Amino acid sequence: MVHTKSYATKIIIQEFRMENLLNILDKNQILIKNMELDLFEIKNIHKHFSPDSIIEGLVGYSLKGEPSGDVRNIIEYTNKINTKKLSLDVPAGLDLNIKKFYKIYFITDAVLTLALPKDRMQIEENKKNIKKLFLADISIPPSLYKLLPSKLETSNIFLDSEIVKA
Question: Which CATH class is domain 53-165?
Answer without folding.
Answer: alpha beta
